[in-house]
Structure formats: C-alpha cells, structure tokens
From TrEMBL:
Keyword Iron-sulfur appears in the UniProt entry: yes
PROSITE patterns for this protein: 4FE4S_FER_1, 4FE4S_FER_2
Cross-referenced InterPro entries: 4Fe4S_Fe-S-bd (IPR017896), 4Fe4S_Fe_S_CS (IPR017900), NADH_quinone_OxRdtase_chainI (IPR010226)
Annotated 4Fe-4S ferredoxin-type domain residues: 31-60, 66-95
GO MF terms, alphabetically ordered: 4 iron, 4 sulfur cluster binding; lyase activity; metal ion binding; NADH dehydrogenase activity
Record-linked Pfam families: Fer4_7
SUPFAM superfamilies the record matches: 4Fe-4S ferredoxins
GO terms for cellular component: membrane
Protein name: Formate hydrogenlyase complex iron-sulfur subunit
Top-rank taxon, per record: Bacteria
Keywords: 4Fe-4S, Iron, Iron-sulfur, Lyase, Metal-binding, Repeat
Record carries keyword Metal-binding: yes
Gene Ontology BP annotations: aerobic respiration
Length: 178
C-alpha cells in the first residue's frame, strides 16, 4: 500500500485545477472574436467570409445606420473574419469560457452611421468606409480635389449618371455620327 502512495506522489497531479485556477492556453489559440467598433469601417468583408454565418450586417437606409452582429452561438472560431478585416478591427482573443444563461447574451452588436450621397442625399455607404477609402487614396499620392472628393462621396447611381453626362460632353462630333 505504501508503495502505491509513493508512486502516486512521484507522478504528480494528473489533472489541472481548471475551475479554481485559470486554464493556460497555448499561443495562437483561437478564442472568442472581439470587435473594436472604433476601428471597424463596416465594409462587411468579415460577414462575407464567415463560413458559419455567425456574422451578419444589415443596412437600414431610412434610419441611415448599418447594424453589425456576431452570434457567438454559431461561431466556429475559424479566424477567417480576423484574416479578411482590412483594418484589423476584429481579433480572436484567448477567452473561451462563453457559458451564458440567456441565448441573447451570445450576440454582440455594433451600429455604424451611413454617409449621405453628395448629389441626391440618400445614404449609401458607411461613413467610416468612405473616409477610409479617401485616406488610402491620399496616401497613395492622389490629389483629391473637390471634384474627386464629391465623386467618391456619391452613390453608385449618381456616379453612373455623372459618368454618362461627362462622356456625352467630351465626345467629339465625329464619334457621335459613328
């Protein structure tokens, strides 16, 4: 009997003290996704790439808002959303304890304001996304004069109309006859 106790003492503890002490996770562990709403531009790249459909984005044009939602009950922690985010606004954390009493507590939400079209005034894209694109263009060396700034702050329908009008004005009489 004492021989058995001696072997057990040498073996050490076979289990972790998890509920009473934090469980150590390895580097690169893919836990709960977390959104930094201040960094997010609401481009919906994460929602398009989510294989489980845990990320959704809905646009309410009348209210001028875009609603982002993450359902942790559906998330498979694949990390695809983190990979495709252009601003690194969504990150996988080390957190894995996600037990809740109510299913609604598994849903995280964020709301983003939409930019109004410079021509017709209808909301068309997230304000942060439009500013992000303009900043990227400035960084690439493009000089954004008033005409270009107004063009990038226009909805697709107004851009199409302006392009058709501009092309009609720049056509030569010989091109119109052909």
């Amino acid at each position: 009997m004492f021989k058995l106790f001696k072997i057990i003492a040498k073996a050490g503890e076979p289990t972790t003290k998890y509920p009473f002490a934090p469980f150590p996770v390895s580097p690169g562990f893919r836990g709960k996704p977390e959104l930094n709403a201040r960094q997010c531009i609401a481009c919906a790249a994460c929602t398009q790439s989510c294989p489980a459909g845990a990320l959704t984005m809905q646009t309410d044009s009348r209210a001028g808002r875009r609603e982002w939602a993450l359902n942790l009950g559906r998330c498979i922690f694949c990390g695809r959303c983190e990979e495709v985010c252009p601003t690194r606004a969504i990150q996988l954390t080390q957190e894995f304890e996600l037990a809740v009493a109510c299913k609604d507590d598994l849903i995280q939400r964020a709301s983003f304001r939409l930019e109004n079209c410079a021509c017709c005034g209808k909301p068309f894209a997230p304000l942060k996304e439009v500013h992000h694109v303009m900043d990227l263009l400035r960084q690439s060396g493009l000089n954004l004069d008033e005409h270009l700034r107004e063009l990038y702050a226009a909805c697709p329908e107004c851009k199409r109309k302006r392009t058709i009008e501009r092309d009609a004005l720049t056509r030569s009489p010989q091109e119109e006859r052909a």
